[in-house]
Amino acid sequence: MRSLYLLFIAVFCALVSCSDTNDEVVIGYVEGLSGPFANIGEVALRHLELEVEAVNRSGNLPGSVRMRILPFDNKTNPQEALLAFRAALDAGVDYVFQGNSSSVATALTDAIAKHNRRNPSNPVIFMNYAALDPALTNEHCEQSHFRFDADVNMKMAALTEYIAVREDIESVYLINQDYSYGQAVATSARSMLKQKRPDLRIAGDDLHPIGRIKDFSPYVAKIKSSGAQAIVTGNWGSDLTLLIKSARQMGVDIDFFTFNVGMTGGVSTIGEAGIERVYQITNWHANINEQTKNNANLYRSRYPDVFEDAYYGSVRRAVRMLEKAMIESDSTSPADVGRALKNMSLTDDTGLVSMREDNHQLLQPLFVSKLVRISAENGLIGVEDVGLGFETVAEIYAEKTRMPTTCQFE
Amino acid sequence: MSEILNKGRLVLWGGVAFLFLLLPFVFSGGFSLSMLSQMGIMVIFALSYNMLLGQTGLLSFGHAVYFGLGAFVTAHAINFVEAGAFGLPISFMPLVGGMTGLLFSLILGFVTTRRPGTPFAMISLGIAEMVAASALMFTTFFGGEGGIVTNRTAGEVILGISYGPQIQVYYLIAVWCFVSMGLMFAITRTPLGRIANAVRDNPERAQFIGYNPTRVRWIMMSLAGFFAGIAGALATINYEIITAEALGLMASGNVVLMAFIGGIGQFWGPMIGAVLVTLLQSALSNFTQAWLLYFGLLFLLIILFSPGGISNLITIHLPVWRAGAVKRLMPSYGFALLTGAITLIGVVGVIELLYRGFLFGGVHVAFTWIVSGLMISIGGFFLRRAIREVKQIWEDLSPELARWG
Amino acid sequence: MGLGDEMISKALSLVDVRKQFGRTKIINGVNLDIVNGERHALIGPNGAGKSTLFNLISGRFPLSSGSISLHGSEITNKEPQVINRLGLSRSFQITNIFPKLTVFENLRCSVFWALGYRYSFFRRVSALRDARESAEQTLAMIGLEDRREKMAGELTYAEQRALEIGITIASGANVILLDEPTAGMSRSETDAAVALISRVTEGKTLLMVEHDMGVVFNIADRISVLVYGEVVATGTPAEIRMNKKVQEAYLGTQLEGDEE
Amino acid sequence: MEFFFITLLNSLSYGLLLFMLSSGLTLIFSMMGVLNFAHASFYMLGAYFAYQTGLVFGFWPALFLAPILVGVVGALTERYGLRKVHKFGHVAELLFTFGLAYVIEEVVHLIWGRAPVDYRIPESLNFTLFTLFNTQYPAYRAFMMLVSVGMLISLFLVLTKTRIGMIVQASLTHPDMVQALGHNVPRVFMLVFAGGCALAGLAGVLGGNLFITEPGMAFAVGSIVFVVVVLGGMGSLVGAFIASLLIGAIQTFSVALDLSFLDLTAALGVVIDPDSKWYGGLSITISQTAPVLPYLLMVLMLIVRPRGLMGTRES
Q: Does A202 have pLDDT greater than 50?
């Protein structure tokens, strides 16, 4: 009922153009809350809520102000997102959180930057916790945009560091969704593997239309006949699940290096088919150390009835850095906070994370982890209550993921 | 010079212009202004769609293709202007979109308009699928996931108009919307417009009065593509970004819903639909996550009970109004409204409970369940009676109304 | 151009026209000349192929073989709209109008092409005086002035039949084909229809299919009899009445036909 | 060789699944003239019903129960929805099913949530049937093929050997005549609609666990089924069968073709620089376009031969 109340306030404010009061920082959560991707939006909203509650409990913000979340539905559509952004502005939002869908993120980055240029007295900051398009911290970078997840190239750099030491893998197969994100994964995989493992054979490089393949078995047959020992894929959602299930059904014993398997519903639909075979590259998972396990349990105890488990480490980092920036700048105004965020560092549950000044990209350790069965012996925390969890197989230091940038702030 | 410039119509169009002028003063918030701009764009788009469905009888599931292509080409054109490659004021950019829409609908229309009905619907769906798929694949032109970003302030500042502030963009849209509405209305009053109606009603007979139905459909489709392109260009200017979603199947489906909910039988029906649907999508979605469900249910209800859409509901009451019989309908309408509202609240209660129950789990709301259930059953029971009563009065009235036809 | 008087005086000329659907032969080599300005009736028992012949002439169906010319120019297998533009207009046995247009609009649409407005989308119909006057003239002729603004689909059957004829003649085509204009009408309605037909086809060439012999003998200058896809006789009403073959094949067995 | 045989088997099983989906649509389309936009939604309902009933009764009863339940939903849809809209014409009917697809998807969200549900292949069928060269062929795929062939045969028997089947069959080609003969055509319509939906439901039961059961599954197959029906020809089950296998083959085999325009230009001696503006467009391979090919085929077919491969009527 709480979220109903929040929604009500949001709309009410949108209609009567009320402005925020001084003792509150309004965080606009502009995310897809209806339609096919609504569940992901809900999950991240709960992460955000948990962190904001923690910040408010500690009460360290200057002038003992509190953070308040206003959710806005962007329907996972760039145009609708801009409408939602207008509504958020009317409601007095100073900080916008968004992450699912790079097309929405691009639209928002651009719209917020234009808004800030046209209304310098009332700037807004965009906290991007999951949109991975490298352009956002390169050619499309903006002063007002900060990214807290690693982008596609950084993740690929980390993943290829790991593949470089896996000498048992002699050939890999690239299969990706045919749109800019999948194409970016394929391109960076090709160039980085060539550099780090010149001996490695790329047995195939397929792009398939996104969300349209029902039966992956022809792809699997092709992969099988190529003799590859591992698959590198940026696929997400059913395109990933179907690929893995199909391979296992046909008895193709092969490693999967993925970006998004831990997303809600991923593990439970892949299930046993993925044990010991599916790897992911992320900035957070539950079984990195005792602290991350604690945080995972916190999430579970705050939301005992929900289906998913903690996933978004970057939401946590975004909120914590926002808090720290407000305390350090002794202000809650986006202009000051933005300056403080620019080169901020923070020790989080996985270690030191720091914001790059030159392109507003967070540098953080990344982890390659493997899907395993959890048991009392290994003491791992499972996800989605199916007896499976992730186990770290490699940690890639933050500096290793620093990429050259073309970003030039105006 | 009689028909268009007659007094009544002049007053009506003047009123519309005045309304366009006045609206931003009433709804001045940033969100309201953006929503009004969106409505203006959708009004053009829905009206252009109705040139196909309502006026020519072509059910298209791919009209957003022309909207989207117009929008993309405009985005590139604005970027060329910014780069100094050529100079066209932003105010006239919609023409670029329009010509793009026209070009593509000329090409695609040539091969698709030979048959109306289901084959046409299927071809349009197939073409829409192909265009949408290519839009994701060809990232050079369509910009990939990020789409094409533009800057509407790229042109020179003319008369203090930079198109920086939203209000200026709103008035640009308002002007184009008004002009497009006028043109599209005028087309219905031309020989082509009338023959399009004839082809819709009876394509075979049209042949025997000298017309080639395929040619008529083709021309109408091209004109519809032109106006869809204008709408697309305005969307580019308004949002300053255009992504592949704009020409996807969802966008095409959306305009079908708009036109049909508003009513395809009257020229102004789709305008109501565009305004209402935009309002529902933007406002209702802020209230509830189940807005898509309500939206779908509304659509089904309209098809089931008023296939002429909302505009038809209004039109059938005109004779009643003229006959001065509104008073006789009032009590039963009031009764139906009351019982309908009760039922609706019950249904909304159940739906919201389900959504929330599954999202946040274990909400113990037995009381709300019972109340909602009671409201549905009691409200529904009386609603049926109310509807029967309304029907009865209509039947009683019909001989009287025939005179006022 | 070498066209003799003989050719010019023929409004419509059918040479060995044949049509078969699958293996079923419907029209078996019809030769028929319709003289300019005459009123010609086509009669014959059910299934003789009268309506099919109309459909062949007006371009609705393609011919299997043979040729048809209109005022000396070839129209074989041309599209219906092309034939119509050459001055041949037809009505249908089953009412074929534009149900969601008003009566007036039905008639006005029928004159646009003939007046040269084609696919124009930059002229206002209200400004087209000639179209309006022409439509109003036809409206008066078919006697539906008081139904002017009514939806054609809401008219009574007899009114729709009148409108059907109105649409057919509105464009001023000089060869008119009427397919059973009085089918399904009462006696008095039929009389009105006959009067209407005589009035509107004044000075034009008329070819009509009709079952009602009263109507046929009342209107027609000449009559052709079609039996099993062949013309067995052509002549004046008096000649046809006397013709033995016709009496055997047609009049003797079945005078009142219903539908083909 | 191994690739060829495995892909052949895969294309066959995919084609048969498509046929299960499209046979129902063809029946409905040819009899009622309604292109059921919500057909794929009934496929989805089949999967979800099977998941739900499977939780209680297990997979085998669900295999029968779920299609029946979907059929009931279909019958109700026809009785209280389509039949009322019928008098407003085909466009209204089409739009009704279009709206219904929206509503069904949202209702599925409402009941089962937006994440995929864990609908699994039953243990008794989760084994490798045989190993061809060294690729395993899962038993469940074979089972699916068996069921669809069984369905094909029983559909054939029902249509040719039973009275109701005769009426349905006659209605496929001569709907007016059947009506004239005094059959209760509305009831036949309802039965056909329910039956068509049940067939889609059966496909859902079998496809839901082989692939994935989630709210997006209807959209993923929605339009491909239309392609099958249009390609095969309206009113022709045989056509639908051929088109299903054809599309199955096209989609599976084209995956293997890595040819692109670049290869063509390379063969002509022109090498395109990867940095060139045109590289992106020209480097698209046939395998990338695989899923678009059916739509291209459909559009071409509608333009060239609108009645489809085996169809008898245009619409």
A: yes
Question: Is A187:A399 a contact under the CB 8 Å cutoff?
Answer: no
Chain D residues lying within 8 Å of B115, measured CB to CB: 302, 306, 314-315
In a domain, A341, yes or no: yes
Q: Which of B235, B239, B286 sits opposite A87 (nearest CB)?
A: B286
pLDDT value at position D260? 67
Partner chains of B (3+ C-beta pairs under 8 Å): A, C, D
Q: Is residue C21, in this structure, part of any structural domain at all?
A: no
Is residue B103 domain-shared with residue B170, that is, in the same domain? yes
Total domains present in chain B: 2
Residue B157: inside a domain: yes
Q: Measure CB to CB from residue C122 to each of B190, B207, B405 and give the nearest one.
A: B190
Q: Are residues A314 and A270 in the same domain?
A: no
Does residue B154 sit within a domain?
yes
Whether residue D287 is predicted with pLDDT greater than 90 in this model: the reply is no
| Number of domains comprising chain C | 1
Chain C neighbors (3+ CB pairs < 8 Å): B
B283 occurs within a structural domain: no
Q: A119 and A263 share a domain?
A: no
**A73 alpha carbon, distance to own chain's centre:** 18
User: Which residues in D95-109 are b (16+ Cβ under 10 Å) and which e?
Assistant: bbbbbbbbbbbbbbb
C-beta atoms surrounding A226 within 10 Å? 16
pLDDT band at B161 (very low <50, low <70, confident <90, very high): confident
Residues B342, B255 share a domain:
no
pLDDT score, position B342: 85
Lowest-pLDDT range of B253-262, B312-321, D253-262? D253-262
Identify all chain D residues contacting A209, using CB atoms and an 8 Å cutoff: 288, 290-292
Task: Choose among D81, D106, D315: nearest Cβ to B118.
Answer: D315
CA torsion A235-A236-A237-A241 (nearest 10°) is 50
CA D77 to chain A, closest CA, distance in angstroms equals 24
Contact B223 C110 (CB under 8 A): no
pLDDT at D41 over 70: yes
B166 chain-A contacts, CB cut-off 8 A: 86
Q: What is the pLDDT of residues C1-21, one digit of tens each?
A: 444 455 458 889 999 999 988
Whether chain D has a CB inside 8 Å of the CB on B122: the answer is yes
CA angle D155, D156, D162 (to 5 degrees): 85
Nearest to D100 among B256, B292, B300 (CB): B300
pTM (predicted TM-score): 0.86
The whole domain housing B98 covers: 7-267
Q: What is the DSSP string of A7-35?
A: HHHHHHHHHHT----TTEEEEEEEE--SS
Average pLDDT over residues A36-47: 84
Mutate to test the interface with C, among B205, B214, B217 (most CBs of C within 10 A): B205
The single residue listed with the structure tokens 């050259």 is A404
Residues B92 and B231 in one domain: yes
**Which B residues 326-355 touch C at CB under 8 Å?**
none
Segments forming the whole domain that contains residue C100: 37-59+78-251
The tens digit of pLDDT for each residue in A16-38 reads 444 445 678 899 999 888 777 77
- At residue D175, the pLDDT reads 65
Domain shared by A60 and A136, yes or no: yes
Shared domain check, B328 and B244: no
H-type alpha helices, chain C: 5-8, 50-57, 80-85, 103-112, 129-142, 157-170, 187-200, 213-219, 237-242, 244-246
Q: How far is D72 from chain B (nearest CA, A)?
A: 19
Task: Characterize the bridge pairing of strands C39-43 and C205-209.
Answer: parallel
Q: Choosing among B50, B63, B125, which should be mutated to test the D contact, i.e. which has the most D CBs within 10 A?
A: B125
CATH number of domain containing A197: 3.40.50.2300
Residue of D nearest to A265 (CA): D115
Residue span of the structural domain in which A313 resides: 2-150+294-363
Q: Could you tell me which residue, D151 or A23, shows the higher pLDDT?
A: D151
Percent of chain A whose predicted confidence (pLDDT) is above 90:
32
Cβ contact B198–C79 (<8 Å): no
CATH number where C178 lies: 3.40.50.300
Mean pLDDT value across residues B165-181 = 91
Q: Look at residue B133 and tell me whether its pLDDT is greater than 70.
A: yes
In chain A, how many domains are there? Answer: 2
Residues 136-165 of chain D with CB under 8 A from chain A are 136-138, 140-141
